[in-house]
Structures are given as structure tokens and as C-alpha cells.
Design brief:
The protein is α+β, with helices and mostly antiparallel strands and about 900 residues long. The chain contains 15 helices and 49 strands. An eight-stranded mixed beta sheet has the order 21-22-24-23-25-26-27-28, with helices on both faces. The longest helix has 22 residues, at about 695-715. The two termini are about 40 Å apart.
């Protein structure tokens, strides 16, 4: 049985003109005609005649499809921009058929692997493999997919994320058709067996996944909570209201953002402090109710959440609203045991599978330092990379800000970071990236990089130019590439016998530190008392003090990405020459001779703060800056400002340039550094199109939901799903242009594509175009109705927000992007990636990116012509 068929073959004024030129949403819609009209008339006639009807069919309360065939692992899922999965590729192309026992699939290594009947126990060879099943439904409707142990499930052609970690609460609404339905389950666990459950209600909260803080006695502070909300209907919820009430108190009612159909998404609430006297140990209840649009106050869904009250000296959970996506994130706090007037802070990162509370429970309160344990976006999160790394810094900033608002002094010169296992890797990563924040780092059984643990592969020197470019950024992200950034802080290495990490990792790190470091300690204590060891390590870390880099006369900073790390003391690397490679500065200043000299490597734009030259009697004229042995640059602090911006020409000559404020919208910078994953910041909106064919529209909406659900599952995140019409309408009434947007589809299928036209006008050049049948990068086209395109561009009107493209030149190309892993740590994407329909299929030559048409990075000014773009030889 064939399950798919192939489908048939001045600037601001200009920006608003483009936006307003889009067709209006209130245009008359054609009346029903043909079969649809006849069906409506027939139904009306039957009702008028009073003909008795059969009782309406109802979906069963639960369906557990029995798998018919299973397939051992045939894909290659190591950490790379493009994975290999011949089953997924066949479904995307539309030439996949229901498998029978004995049907063969060519795996990622070129070996033929056969489907077999699902009889008997499932072995380990099925981890990463597939299971196929069908089931009958008496009627169409919506059910909730429960898929513990599954990486993803394709339901009647639509991919939805599974529940590989077995959380249990993650149940995604899916559409069921009358008659035969089919599932293709990608098995994370060999024994995964998805089932479908009829929703108890059309809309419901999911309290098992609520994010709740503790209430602290004596602190009248507002607090943020969130709880997932499931819209298990095919209708968008708009105009709803949220009613919130503490206990039996008076409720408050606020408007609620629109929630798309078939969506599981967090609802965020900022609660006012509760009234009355509180006692530690009691529990307060807050009620949330979603009310429909209009005057009806009958709740669509309601939930009661219990918040525990703790004393100021108890371990607790605080929450904050993330600037990244507007979600609510928790972190644990263990207050210091002593009465120190100024306390240090220890940022403690949990291991894989742990929560922030479980990590905090391993600690003993320290006399003069508070311990802060961030959640890191989940028990597994992103290995303390990407959004997990940012979460740790956001939690630290939130804690320090709260302490200061309470009048509690924080000694920011005594902030350290520590972790075990995955958390040890995260501590090492944070410390190497942010030597400006941490006085010391403690690594207990931390693995070093994705090359030593995590499935990343070194790109061979004889790989294609495209493969080398795609492997460049992951290689630069290895903490060992910037290990010298630790030279100014204390480092404590501890081998405690972690079952999943080889002792050779700590031993190798010890050897590397021994080459240059003069303040590190190593201890082999496998089998020792873990709590005592942790307490001793914390005491060692809190005895260190952060180097005052602003007062230092020497700066040595290396960074794999200016978006992750860019500033140390008085120097900021603004953009590199080659993106995806490590950039470095080594600078010295002499305040008496009024000189700054130094060398750079892979630095395109640099910013120097020279206000120290104005201190006291030092304000005696111009400062001379000489970089890389080049000609001197004169700068007078005060008259010319306090900050000198510099740019390096193609020939290597450094020149002073206008400040970043004047040119920030035109150039890459640390706030908008490029690379696709950075678009999923600045509270992004996922915008699906409604102007395509039936297949195109179905894919765009499903892909937006897939990304939102996956980010919720993997990163406890909130990605708002909106239709193209809603974005266009919001901008007509002054919508928020400071948010990033992700556009799915192509120009003809998504009416929000005008945002890219705005960006092209802003830069006065053609940039990226994706249309049916062809894609363009600048003036260069690539033809075909089955190409996939990923890209990121700056959003005009903002110095941080971006516009991302996830789409294709036809429905096949669009489908080929569905399960790309941009929410995986260790997987990096450039600014632009264009590939064909066999890119994720089993390659003729394993390890080679054979059907990537183009990949690379735009220039520092986001230009195309001067960018670092690699095309395959056959591109036209």
C-alpha cells in the first residue's frame, strides 16, 4: 500500500510599503461549490425532513497499535548538521511504502537491512530503528499521542516528537482519520510502544510539568509560574482570558495570547505576592482558569497549583522569565550558613538526568557563599551548551539582582562554577567562555568535548569543501581550543569515579593545564565520600577572587563565537574574519606611554574601551593603538568618546570606524552574530504559511508545531506558533519588531515572506529568495522543486532579532527539513544551507555531504557577495 504520492510538479518608508502591499485578510472568500456545496445541501435537507440518524461514532478511550514490522537501525545520527536516515528521506520524497517482512533498506554504511515481523523480544539492534503499525478508527478526531521511549512518531504522514526520556507528561495532540491510520515510530528505546488516548477535555492544563517557585516567608515579591496547556482541537483559540486567584481571594483577569490548534504550549503567569502571614511548611494554592472569548465566564480549563512556603534559610526554588523565549525557568538556592556580610556565589551544574533540586541536595551549606543550581533547561537539556549555557547565566544574573534588591550584598569577585559529569563539562565550558565572570571552576569527572563523549566526529582533512565548512564551527566549540582562557582563574579537577566518564578525561585536562597554568589542583578520589569531597571543593573555589580584567594591562581572550563570548576587560571582539573559527586577541596597554599594542588572529572588528587613559594626570593627549605590527592609529579619549571601534580590511590594515551604535543594524555583532540556531532567541515566533497547496499548508503548520513541541520537550521552552496572516496584521498596528521570526515554506506559500523583502530593501541588495522551483543566494540561482533551504538574516529595526528561513522549493524539500536537529547540542548550522533530496538519504560515499548544493556564512555586514559561501561544482 502506497502511503504517499508525489505532489504535482528612505528605508523605513519602503519597509512599510512592502508590508502594506500584502493582500488583506478580510478579502471575500469564495462560497462552497461542487461536492462541498452538494454535501452541505444534502445535510440540510436530511435535517429538515427529520430523517433519523445513526448515533455518532466515538473514538475509543485508548488505542495501542500493534506493530507489524520492525527495522534495525539504518541511519547515522552522530552530531552533524545533516543526519542520515533513509526511512525519513523516503517518507519526505513520497516514495515510501508500507513495509513487509523482507523488504530491504540501504543503511548509512551501504549495507542492505531488512524489515522483519515484530515477533518475540526486541533486541538492542532496534535502538535507533523503526517500527511500523496500523490501526482502525471509527471516526475522525483528535487524540493524544503517548510515546515513551520513542524519538519521534510519524502519524499519517505528520512527524511529532516522542518522549525518549519517558517523562510521561508529554502527550501531543494528533489528528486521526476515519478508517485506517498508520504510525512509523523511530525507536530511541527498542521496546517503545506508542499509544493514543482520547482527551478527557478539548482543552486542558498539564500540571505534572508545571514550573513553580517556593514562597519565602517575609518576602513580598511577585513570582513567575508556568504550566503547559493543551489545545486538543483543530481550532485556534483566540481572544481568551486568564483568571488567576490565590485561594479564595479576589481573582485577576488578563488577556491570553492566541494558542494554535493541536498545540501543547506553556502558559506563563506572574503572580502577585500572597496576602496574609505565612509560615514555613504550609502550602498555598493558586487557581488558573482559561476563559473563552466574549462574556462567557465558564472556564475552558482550570488547574490548581500548590506552592510550598519556606523560610529564608531553607533550600528553595526561585523562578525567572527568560529573555530568550519568555518561558519560566527554575533554579535552586541553598543560602549560606554563616552571617557573612558579603557572600560569594557558587553556580552548581547538575549531571545528566538530574534536576536542579537533586543537584542542590548534594551540597552542604557553605559559611559565606550561596549555592545556586540552575535547571539548565531540563534534566538533559542541551549538555550545558546553547540554551542551557545561557540559562545558567540568566539564573546567576537573576539571583544576584534579587539579592541586591533585598539589600543583601553579593561579592561578585567570588563567583565560581562547579559541576559533575555533564555538569562538569558545562562548568569547563562556561569558565572557558566567560573568564570575565568566574573566579574559579571545579570540574568533577567532567567530559571534555563532544569528540571525547557525545558522538561528534572529526572532519577528515580530505573531506569535501562543504563537509569541512559544516564541521568548522563544531570543531571550534571544543573547550580545549580556548583552554588558555582559564589562565586567570583557579581550577579544581576531581576524579570521583563517575560511571559514564573515563578518568582519562580529567588526566588529559590536568596535562594541558600543566603546560601553562599556575593555580590548579588535581585529586583522584574515586570511592570517597561524595558530599565531603564536594564541600571541600567548594571551599577551595570560594577562596579564589576574580581577576580585575578592567584594571589589567594585559588581555588575552579567545572565543569560538562572539555570540557566546566576546568581552574581557577593556577589549571586545565584535566579529571574526572567518566565522566558525576561533578568534583571539593578545593586547597590552601602557598608561604612562599612552600606547596599546598587540596581535590578533581571525578578528575582523574590534572594540577597545580606553577610559582608563583619562584617569587623573593621564589625560594628556591621544592614545596610540598599533595592532599586528601595522600603522599607528591615534585616538583621544573624551574628545572622540571613550570607546575606539576598529575594523580590519581585506589587506590586513586596521582603521578606526564609526561606533557600533551607528552601524549596528548593518553589521554582525555579539548580540546578533549569525548562525541559524541564534534565531531561536529574542522571543521567537514560528510563522507558518497559509497560502500554499494543501500539502504545503499542512507541512508548514505541522513543522511549526513540531519545532515548538520539540523545544518544549528538550529545552522547557516557549516558541509561539502563529499564522502568516497574524504576523502581517500585527505589524499593521505596530507589532513588536524586536522579536525574531522563523518563516516556514516559501515566498508563494507564506505571506509573511515580505519580512525578507524588507530586509533586502534595508541592505539595498538581493539576499536570500526561496520560491517554488528555485532558490537564490544573491544573484545565483539553484533550480529544482525538491530543494531544502535554511538561512538567517537580520531583522530590520532591531539590533538583535533575526529572520530565519526553514523551507524549500517544493513540498519534498520542505519535508526534508522536518527533523533537522538544530535543537541538539554539538550540532551547528551556518548562516545558509541549501541541499537536495538525497542529502539525508544513505550516501554513495559514507561521511560525505554529497547533495549539499551550498553552505556558508554571510559577510560581516550580512552581505552575500563577500561572504564565505561554498558551492558544489554542479551548482548553476
Amino acid at each position: 500500500m502506497t502511503l504517499f504520492r508525489r505532489p504535482a510538479a528612505l528605508v523605513a518608508t519602503a519597509l512599510w510599503l512592502v508590508a502594506l502591499a500584502a493582500p488583506a485578510d478580510d478579502a471575500p472568500q469564495p462560497a462552497a461549490s461542487g461536492a462541498a456545496a452538494e454535501s452541505t445541501e444534502a445535510a440540510e435537507s436530511t435535517e429538515a425532513e427529520g430523517t433519523p440518524s445513526e448515533p455518532a461514532a466515538e473514538l475509543p478511550s485508548e488505542i495501542t497499535p500493534a506493530p507489524q514490522t520492525v527495522l534495525p537501525r539504518v541511519g547515522d545520527y552522530h552530531r552533524a548538521a545533516l543526519h542520515v536516515d533513509p526511512v525519513e528521506a523516503a517518507i519526505a520524497r513520497g516514495d515510501w511504502e508500507a513495509p513487509a517482512p523482507g523488504d530491504e533498506v540501504t543503511d548509512a554504511t551501504g549495507v542492505e537491512t531488512a524489515w522483519r515481523a515484530d515477533a518475540g523480544p526486541r533486541g538492542r539492534e532496534l535502538a535507533g530503528g523503526y517500527a511500523y503499525a496500523t490501526f482502525e478508527a471509527p471516526t475522525a478526531g483528535v487524540m493524544l499521542l503517548e510515546a515513551p521511549g520513542a524519538a519521534a512518531v510519524c502519524v499519517n504522514g505528520e512527524w511529532v516528537p516522542g518522549d525518549p526520556y519517558g517523562y510521561g507528561w508529554f502527550r501531543v495532540p494528533v489528528k486521526i482519520v476515519e478508517g485506517e491510520n498508520w504510525l512509523v515510530t523511530h525507536l530511541a528505546s527498542p521496546t517503545a510502544a506508542p499509544k493514543l488516548v482520547r482527551p478527557a477535555a478539548a482543552q486542558a492544563f498539564v500540571p505534572a510539568a508545571a514550573t513553580l517557585p517556593n514562597i519565602v516567608v517575609g518576602r513580598a515579591e511577585s513570582m513567575a509560574v508556568s504550566v503547559p496547556f493543551c489545545n486538543a482541537t483543530t481550532e485556534r483559540l483566540a481572544g481568551c482570558r486568564l483568571r488567576v486567584r490565590w485561594g479564595d481571594g479576589e481573582p485577576t483577569i488578563t488577556s491570553l495570547r492566541a494558542i494554535d490548534s493541536l498545540l501543547l504550549t506553556p502558559i506563563v503567569v506572574t503572580l502577585p505576592p500572597p496576602n496574609g502571614k505565612l509560615e514555613a511548611g504550609e502550602t498555598l494554592t493558586v487557581t488558573l482558569e482559561v476563559l473563552p472569548a466574549g462574556a462567557d465566564d465558564t472556564p475552558l480549563a482550570a488547574v490548581e497549583l500548590d506552592l510550598k512556603v519556606v523560610s529564608p534559610v531553607d533550600a528553595r526554588t526561585d523562578t525567572f522569565v527568560s529573555k530568550i523565549d519568555g518561558s519560566v525557568q527554575p533554579y535552586g538556592v541553598l543560602p549560606a550558613a554563616g552571617e557573612a556580610t558579603e557572600r560569594g556565589v557558587v553556580l552548581s551544574l547538575h549531571d545528566a538526568g538530574e534536576s536542579h533540586a537533586e543537584r542542590l541536595a548534594k551540597h552542604t551549606a557553605h559559611p559565606d557563599a550561596d549555592i545556586v543550581a540552575p535547571f539548565g533547561r531540563g534534566r538533559w537539556g542541551f549538555d550545558w551548551e546553547d540554551w542551557s549555557r545561557d540559562d545558567a547565566l540568566e539564573a546567576l544574573d537573576d539571583f544576584i539582582a534579587r539579592q541586591k534588591s533585598r539589600g543583601a550584598a553579593v561579592d561578585e569577585s567570588r563567583v565560581s562554577v562547579i559541576g559533575e559529569g555533564m555538569g562538569g563539562h558545562g562548568a569547563l565550558r562556561l569558565a572557558t567562555l566567560r573568564p570575565d565572570r568566574f573566579a574559579a571552576v571545579g570540574v568533577t569527572d567532567g567530559w571534555l568535548s563532544f569528540y571525547t563523549q557525545g558522538g561528534a566526529r572529526v572532519t577528515p582533512s580530505d573531506a569535501t569543501a562543504v563537509a569541512r565548512l559544516l564541521g568548522r564551527a563544531p570543531s571550534a566549540d571544543d573547550p580545549l581550543r580556548v583552554i588558555e582562557n582559564l589562565s586567570g582563574m583557579g581550577v579544581s579537577l576531581l576524579h570521583a569515579g563517575h560511571r559514564d566518564v573515563s578518568p582519562s578525561e580529567a588526566q588529559f585536562l590536568r596535562e594541558r593545564l600543566g603546560e601553562f597554568h599556575n593555580d590548579f589542583a588535581y585529586r583522584d578520589a574515586a570511592g570517597g565520600d561524595q558530599r565531603a569531597l564536594l564541600s571541600e571543593q567548594v571551599a577551595w573555589l570560594t577562596s579564589r577572587t576574580l581577576l580585575d580584567n578592567a584594571a589589567a594591562d594585559a588581555i588575552d581572550l579567545a572565543t569560538p563565537s562572539v555570540g557566546a563570548a566576546s568581552t574581557l576587560g577593556w577589549a571586545t571582539i565584535v566579529t571574526p574574519v572567518v566565522q566558525g573559527e576561533v578568534a583571539r586577541v593578545r593586547l597590552t596597554r601602557d598608561l604612562e606611554s599612552r600606547e596599546v599594542t598587540g596581535t590578533t588572529a581571525n578578528v575582523r572588528r574590534l572594540r577597545l574601551s580606553l577610559d582608563a587613559f583619562r584617569t587623573g594626570s593621564r589625560d594628556r593627549g591621544a592614545v596610540t593603538v598599533r595592532l599586528d605590527g601595522g600603522r599607528p592609529i591615534k585616538f583621544r579619549p573624551g574628545r572622540s568618546g571613550e570607546v575606539l571601534s576598529l575594523a580590519r580590511s581585506v589587506s590586513g590594515v586596521w582603521r578606526a570606524t564609526p561606533g557600533d551604535t551607528a552601524i549596528g543594524g548593518f553589521f554582525k555583532n555579539p548580540e546578533r552574530a549569525g548562525a541559524l540556531k541564534s534565531a531561536f532567541c529574542c522571543r521567537p515566533q514560528l510563522v507558518y504559511g497559509t497560502r500554499g497547496s494543501q500539502d504545503e499548508d499542512a507541512w508548514m503548520a505541522a513543522k511549526a508545531r513540531y519545532d515548538a513541541h520539540l523545544f518544549l520537550y528538550r529545552g522547557a521552552g516557549l516558541l509561539e506558533v502563529v499564522a502568516d496572516n497574524d504576523i502581517r496584521n500585527s505589524l499593521r498596528v505596530g507589532g513588536d519588531a524586536s522579536r525574531s521570526v522563523v518563516l516556514y515554506g516559501a515566498a508563494q506559500t507564506n505571506s509573511a515572506w515580505f519580512l525578507l523583502q524588507q530586509e533586502a530593501i534595508f541592505h539595498r541588495s538581493r539576499t536570500v529568495r526561496v520560491e517554488r522551483g528555485a532558490a537564490w543566494l544573491g544573484e545565483r540561482p539553484e533550480s529544482g522543486d525538491d530543494l531544502s533551504v535554511l538561512a538567517i538574516r537580520p531583522r530590520p529595526g532591531s539590533s538583535e532579532a533575526a529572520i530565519a528561513i526553514v523551507g524549500g522549493t517544493g513540498v519534498t524539500g520542505m519535508r526534508m527539513t522536518t527533523r533537522l536537529r538544530y535543537f541538539w547540542s554539538g550540532v551547528e548550522y551556518p548562516d545558509f544551507l541549501l541541499y537536495g533530496p538525497t542529502a539525508i538519504d544513505s550516501p554513495d560515499e559514507p561521511g560525505q555531504a554529497k547533495d549539499v548544493r551550498a553552505a556558508g556564512y554571510f559577510d560581516a555586514d550580512w552581505g552575500v557577495d563577500g561572504g564565505d559561501i561554498v558551492w558544489r561544482d554542479l551548482a548553476i
